[in-house]
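Hi V.,

Quick status before I head out on leave. The structure for the redesign project is tokenized and pasted below; the design run finished overnight.
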């Protein structure tokens, strides 16, 4: 069939019916092949090494107050995400969804979760080593199970009870190894760090509306919130170049890029596989700290990390897809 004949038959079919019939390869589909879930899973897995840099960078920024550090970090994270997470408003309906006040509710919850989690984590590192603070904050999956059952979101099963017990056992092993001082202040801040993120995840469980630019808006709100707390509660310290660069790197690497690739991969890839892989983040953080000579690599740290990872896998289980997705 010639090209002219092909065009003629297409016209004839359009005349006889309201449906346009396309023949052969004269009108190939213009849509590109979608990215596979396996590829999106690989994208989400990039968050693990990015998140693992947080304790090391936090140690480099200890010379400036916690909320001043967070203000700088969230500011740089906001700048990065503002360019990477622009909402697509191609029509009147989409534009109205972006400008709606309801679209800011997830951003406010994200700001509370991010600000609380990171502020308490930095405060914890002033009293206990960063590796232990990071591991304790990673009890948040078990905290989701416990709090969710108390609030009636889901039924606490035997697997979750075992996970909770293993989580506390891992914390006991971690804190009883003799490598750290048992600071109740530091331990409490580390636990509050995970609790802040757990409450945000429980909010996501109940809020079903699709968020709009939740990370960039959350970082913007967190910048203003932490700056306000800094001026109210802390003295302003002129940071050195190293501390300023570390604070900016916190905002760019784990806060912006880490959370962005995780959000993309978790929503479009294998969310359950990524949830299991994410439990390697505390171990990666501890290995990085030990490799740089910032922490001692003790057996209590290794055993405590392994038990905490197992506790999260057993206790969190299948709930991760519902709560976080």
């Amino acid at each position: 069939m010639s090209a002219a004949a092909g065009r003629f038959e297409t016209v004839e079919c359009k005349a006889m019916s309201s449906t346009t019939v396309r023949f052969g390869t004269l009108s190939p589909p213009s849509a590109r092949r979608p990215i596979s879930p396996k590829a999106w899973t690989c994208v989400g897995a990039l968050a693990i090494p990015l998140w693992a840099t947080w304790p090391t960078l936090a140690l480099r920024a200890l010379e400036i107050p916690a909320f001043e550090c967070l203000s700088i970090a969230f500011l740089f994270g906001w700048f990065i995400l503002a360019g990477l997470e622009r909402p697509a408003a191609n029509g009147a309906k989409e534009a109205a969804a972006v400008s709606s006040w309801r679209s800011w509710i997830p951003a406010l919850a994200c700001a509370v979760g991010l600000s609380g989690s990171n502020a308490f984590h930095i405060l914890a590192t002033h009293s206990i080593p960063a590796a232990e603070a990071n591991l304790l904050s990673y009890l948040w999956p078990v905290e989701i199970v416990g709090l969710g059952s108390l609030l009636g979101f889901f039924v606490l099963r035997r697997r979750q009870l075992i996970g909770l017990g293993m989580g506390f056992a891992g914390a006991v092993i971690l804190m009883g190894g003799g490598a750290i001082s048992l600071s109740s202040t530091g331990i409490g801040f580390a636990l509050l760090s995970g609790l802040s993120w757990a409450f945000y995840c429980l909010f996501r469980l109940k809020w079903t509306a699709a968020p709009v630019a939740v990370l960039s808006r959350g970082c913007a709100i967190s910048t203003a919130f932490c700056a306000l707390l800094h001026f109210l509660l802390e003295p302003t310290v002129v940071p050195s170049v190293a501390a300023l660069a570390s604070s900016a790197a916190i905002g760019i690497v784990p806060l912006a890029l880490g959370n962005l690739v995780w959000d993309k991969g978790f929503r479009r890839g294998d969310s359950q596989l990524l949830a299991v892989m994410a439990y390697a983040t505390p171990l990666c953080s501890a290995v990085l700290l030990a490799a740089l000579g910032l922490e001692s690599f003790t057996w209590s740290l290794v055993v405590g990390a392994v038990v905490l990872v197992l506790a999260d896998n057993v206790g969190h289980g299948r709930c991760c897809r519902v709560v976080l997705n």
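Above is the designed sequence. Residues 1-30, 89-96, 318-325 have pLDDT under 50 and may be disordered.

G. will cover questions while I'm gone.

Best,
W.
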